[in-house]
Amino acid sequence: MEVKAVYKNARISAKKMRDVAAAVQGMSVSQATDVLSYSPKKGAYLLNKTLKSAVGNAENNNGLSADDLVLKSVMIDEGPTSRRTMPRARGSANMIRKRTSHITIILASTEA
């Protein structure tokens, strides 16, 4: 059985999140939680938050045990980008892109 959790419009670029997501792909939930909780990156905090939500969905909605769950897939997609302008020399302006991302975690049960 598969369980899914989605965190939309996370205020971090997808490129930065994909580095963290690749580190925990395919791990068990307990291993992934340990790796993410000791990582100093902001993306690790957001991914851990989404992982806890997915585990909560599995336990409450489907009656699965957290010990038997494995991260089947972690997908990081690009979200909407806010655009701001920054004044530059001689009356010109540069664009500042405030990127967001969508985090999707799919957990699978090892006992089937």
Write a structural description:
This protein is an alpha+beta fold. It has one domain (2-109): Ribosomal Protein L22, Chain A. It is built from 3 helices and 5 strands, in the order E-H-H-H-E-E-E-E. It has helices at 14-24, 29-37, 42-62, and strands spanning 2-10, 69-78, 82-87, 93-98, 101-109. Strands 1-5-2 form a 3-stranded antiparallel sheet. The longest helix is centred in the middle third of the chain and has 21 residues, at 42-62. It is elongated.
Intertermini distance: 7 Å
Helical stretch tally: 3
Content of β-strand? 35-45%
Sequence stretches where pLDDT stays below 50 over 5 or more residues: none
Topology as H/E string? EHHHEEEE
Radius of gyration: 17 Å
Q: Count all strands and give the number.
A: 5
Q: Please give the largest β-sheet.
A: 3 strands, antiparallel
Fourth-tier CATH superfamily name? Ribosomal protein L22/L17
Number of domains: 1
For the record, what CATH class applies?
Answer: Alpha Beta
Structure classification? alpha+beta
The strands making up the biggest β-sheet line up spatially as: 1-5-2
Work out the helicity level. 25-40%
Shape: elongated
Give average pLDDT, whole number.
Answer: 95
Q: From the coordinates shown, what is the CATH architecture?
A: Alpha-Beta Complex
